[in-house]
Specification:
The protein contains 22 helices and 13 strands. It is of the alpha/beta class and 562 residues long. Among the domains are: 222 residues, Rossmann fold (3-Layer(aba) Sandwich); 150 residues, Rossmann fold. A 7-stranded parallel sheet has the order 3-4-2-5-6-1-7. It has a 6-stranded parallel sheet with strand order 8-13-12-9-11-10, with helices on both faces. The longest helix has 20 residues. The chain is elongated, with a radius of gyration of 34 Å. This is Pre-mRNA-processing ATP-dependent RNA helicase prp5. InterPro entries: P-loop_NTPase. GO terms for molecular function: ATP binding; helicase activity; hydrolase activity. Keywords: ATP-binding, Helicase, Hydrolase, Nucleotide-binding.
Length: 562
């Protein structure tokens, strides 16, 4: 009996199904799809979506619905393509070449389609689109093939010259959340992006040095936003590199419960990118906070020093792996009697965390704590050009001597103290006056191996004093301070006091720019009684102690005038 056409067709289809099932079991679904597409392409039978394998999507046809065919256009001015389409097209071409080495690689086409869809999504939804992209990059940081491309890696390395997009997104989300909740009152009408402090902070932050901010007593909302956004960017980048953190990444110490709530409010919008913030303060019970720390693993921790030390003592939290430490309102913390608490917290942290300190420049009570915390090279940050801000943490030691011989003895004594307690990378500078006899002091300094440049011009002075092989102790003439970088010297000695108070202020505000352990020694005699009043004003303005001998010298000058 002759079989019908239907039976023959069913038998043929059955063989094809068996063949396909046996061949697809040995390969993955992705490879099988590529093989099937190749067979259809050779047979001349293509699906509608297969047209993408032969043409690139364009801004006019992002999903390639026309299959690469151009629409009929009348003669007229050419339409300008969008500026953002160029880098996407270039990235697609690179992926085509880096795929299978063939023009019709399916891998490159899929990436091109994904990029175009993301572009259209962002173009249509603005803020929501940005949030979608950030979330996709942030969520467990699943690295795509495009992220491994060399051009993308080179772009990620250039983070020090300009803020990254992630920093801008964090600032934008924080600002929108605060303005929506009416919690932003520090700078109404001003955008976070236009804050000059933030750009200066990011420039200092990218150097990797510890920061000391001396503009005010406490951090503002904008300063907190820039600080936590930069920390979030660093955290995200390190996790993308494969690093893991057992405990919190950022520790933000505050003086009070109200400040802790403020910082927590600023950090709350970062939860959408996987950065969780926990606030610890005496306003809640200790048992409740202990149970809460067991159930969550925050990336950012905001706390008062005394409550944090209590939790660390009962082993409720581990802060040994802290990578960044921010201390806000240091002077208020020290006035509350928590100086030893800060030192204990610093000892609990292993390694060398990146530190940011907001210090009150009007008080010298916190100077010992700052010098204990900031032991290495620092970057000073302040948009306030006042004397108190620029000379913060620089101790002014003023001594009134009875004679010229007494000045030499005490100047040499200061040198001996420096050499006995010198730390690494610390330097001392003597500033001498040519109109005052100092032959004996020069002779002593030469015998101790000091580098002396008194009669040299500014060019030779820069070569000798500011070179890479700079001596630990140097001596220059007062006329050369304008051409000498005195910011690299931690200790400056004035064996003979300067002829004007403006020169003194210039030295005070330009020395020890890279250290928190600056000391300025000044030795006066009765000849300098006319400058005693102005010097007392500077000391009181900077919150420094005024010695009784200087007050007596000032009173004697008033008696002479009378």
């Amino acid at each position: 009996m002759v079989k019908g056409e239907d039976a023959v067709l069913r038998k043929k289809n059955k063989k094809l199904r068996k063949k396909n099932n046996s061949s697809s079991s040995s390969v993955s679904a992705k490879v099988a799809a590529v093989i099937a597409a190749k067979k259809r392409r050779k047979a001349g039978k293509r699906r509608m979506c297969q047209g993408m394998c032969f043409s690139l999507p364009t801004p006019e046809d992002p999903f390639n619905d026309r299959g690469g065919k151009e629409e009929f256009q009348t003669k007229g001015p050419k339409k300008n393509t969008h500026l953002k389409s160029k880098p996407i097209d270039e990235m697609v071409r690179l992926n085509e070449k880096s795929g299978d080495g063939k023009k019709g690689a399916v891998h490159g086409r899929n990436i091109a389609l994904e990029l175009q869809r993301k572009k259209e999504f962002v173009k249509a939804n603005n803020d929501l689109g940005q949030k979608r992209i950030i979330n996709s990059e942030r969520k467990k940081f699943k690295v795509t093939e495009m992220a491994h491309h060399p051009s993308t890696q080179r772009h990620d390395c250039d983070i020090s010259e300009f803020p990254s997009k992630f920093v801008f997104w964090c600032l934008s989300s924080i600002e929108n959340a605060l303005r929506h909740g009416d919690a932003y009152t520090d700078g109404e009408g001003n955008s976070f992006f236009l804050n000059p402090w933030g750009l200066e902070f990011l420039k200092c932050y990218s150097t990797g040095k510890d920061l000391m901010e001396t503009s005010g007593t406490s951090a503002t909302t904008e300063q907190i936003a820039w600080t936590v956004s930069s920390a979030a960017d660093t955290f995200s980048r390190k996790e993308r590199e494969g690093l893991s953190f057992a405990g919190p990444f950022l520790l933000f110490l505050v003086p009070s419960q109200e400040k802790a709530v403020q910082v927590r409010t600023v950090c709350k919008p970062l939860k959408s990118v996987g950065i969780h913030t926990v606030s610890i303060h005496p306003g809640a019970s200790l048992d409740h906070q202990i149970q809460g720390m067991k159930t969550c693993e925050p990336e950012f921790l905001v706390s008062t020093p005394e409550r944090l030390l209590e939790l660390v003592s009962v082993k409720a939290i581990d802060i040994s792996g802290i990578s960044m430490l921010v201390i806000d309102g240091l002077n208020a913390i020290c006035n509350a009697g928590h100086t030893d608490t800060l030192k204990s917290i610093k000892k609990c942290i292993s390694g060398n965390p990146h530190m940011v300190i907001f210090n009150d420049c009007h008080s010298h009570l916190s100077i010992p704590v700052v010098q204990y915390l900031l032991t290495g090279s620092i970057c000073r940050l302040s948009l306030n050009n006042s004397i108190t801000s620029l000379s913060s943490c620089t101790i002014q030691s003023v001594t009134v001597c009875s004679s010229e011989e007494d000045k030499v003895i005490k100047s040499v004594k200061a040198l001996d103290q420096f050499q006995n307690s010198r730390t690494q990378n610390s330097n001392m500078l003597y500033i001498l006056r040519k109109d005052v006899k100092c032959h004996k002091l020069l002779k002593i300094l030469k015998s101790k191996g000091c580098s002396i440049c008194i009669d040299s011009d500014s060019a030779s002075l820069d070569d000798s004093v500011d070179s890479d092989k700079k001596e630990v102790v140097s001596a220059i003439a007062l006329e050369h301070i304008s051409t000498t970088d005195i910011g690299t010297y931690d200790v400056v000695i004035l064996p003979s006091f300067v002829p004007s108070i403006d020169t003194y202020v210039h030295i005070l505000t330009n020395m020890a720019r890279q250290s928190a352990k600056g000391v300025l020694y000044s030795f006066l005699t009765k000849r300098d009684r006319e400058l005693a009043s102005a010097l007392i004003t500077v000391l009181e303005q900077c919150g420094q102690e005024v010695p009784q001998t200087l007050l007596d010298l000032h009173h004697s000058s008033n008696m002479v005038e009378d």
